[in-house]
Design a protein that fits this description.
The chain is mainly alpha-helical. It has one domain. The protein is built from three helices and no strands.
Length: 54
């Protein structure tokens, strides 16, 4: 249990330091990881446009 609590606390501290929510911090971290590894992420409006075409 200690590991989980520590990880949660670390995320809260990091998010607070960057004036972000935890969810937004995770999104930023995922985007940075994908950018560093040349993984393309379609923008949200593009995903909805594809759904409308079906």
């Amino acid at each position: 249990m200690t590991v989980s609590r520590t990880a949660t606390l670390n995320l809260r501290i990091a998010a607070q330091r960057d004036h972000r929510s935890i969810a937004n911090l995770i999104e930023v971290l995922i985007r940075k990881h994908c950018e560093a590894n040349s993984i393309s992420i379609p923008e949200q409006h593009a995903l909805f446009a594809e759904a409308d075409d079906e």
